[in-house]
């Protein structure tokens, strides 16, 4: 479905899961970048805080959502719902991780895992709402 041609015009349409997959790939790139920074800074006694890693990973992973928002007419309600889904899943996963692993090295690990799990879901909600609004 991702390689369908748009009725002879020569343009290809992207599939509905492309932004979500791009978000996951960019999260992995952000985690790799954070890992390289940690390896370079470790000999000097500095390790990045999990909140900083979550922020850096989020900065890498925000581009698919920004492209979705820029591609069509602005839908503020879709963005609000996507951000609420992002915040809800982040807090639920963070609470679950902190409950399941009560003694990690840093309590911010739960927040980091929550952000990593919630970012693709937030992009999926945004893509679904924008596609639904554009189809109507």
Give a verbal description of the structure.
It is a single chain. The protein is mostly helical. The chain is 72% helix and 0% strand. It is built from five helices and no strands. Helix 1 packs antiparallel against helix 2, helix 1 runs antiparallel to helix 3 (63-71) and helix 3 (63-71) packs parallel to helix 5 (108-135). The longest helix has 28 residues, at 108-135.
Determine the number of helices (DSSP H or I, runs of at least 4 residues): 5
In helices, the fraction of residues equals: over 70%
Q: Major sheet, described briefly?
A: none
Mean pLDDT: 80
Distance between the termini: 21 Å
List the keywords.
136 residues, disordered N terminus, single chain, mainly alpha, 5 helices
Topology (elements, then pairings):
Layout: H1 18-41, H2 50-61, H3 63-71, H4 76-100, H5 108-135
Helix pairs in contact: 1-2, 1-3, 1-5, 2-5, 3-5, 4-5
In short:
This protein is an all-alpha fold and 136 residues long. It has helices spanning 18-41, 50-61, 63-71, 76-100, 108-135. Mean pLDDT is 80; it is low at 1-8.
């Amino acid at each position: 479905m991702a390689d369908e041609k748009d009725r002879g015009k020569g343009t290809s349409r992207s599939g509905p899961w492309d932004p979500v997959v791009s978000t996951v790939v960019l999260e992995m790139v952000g985690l790799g970048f954070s890992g390289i920074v940690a390896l370079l800074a470790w000999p000097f006694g500095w390790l990045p805080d999990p909140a900083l890693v979550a922020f850096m990973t989020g900065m890498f992973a925000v581009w698919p959502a920004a492209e979705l928002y820029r591609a069509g007419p602005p839908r503020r309600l879709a963005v609000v719902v996507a951000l609420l889904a992002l915040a809800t899943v982040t807090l639920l996963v963070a609470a679950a991780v902190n409950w399941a692993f009560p003694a990690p090295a840093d309590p911010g690990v739960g927040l980091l895992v929550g952000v990593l799990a919630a970012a693709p879901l937030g992009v999926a909600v945004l893509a679904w709402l924008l596609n639904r609004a554009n189809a109507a």
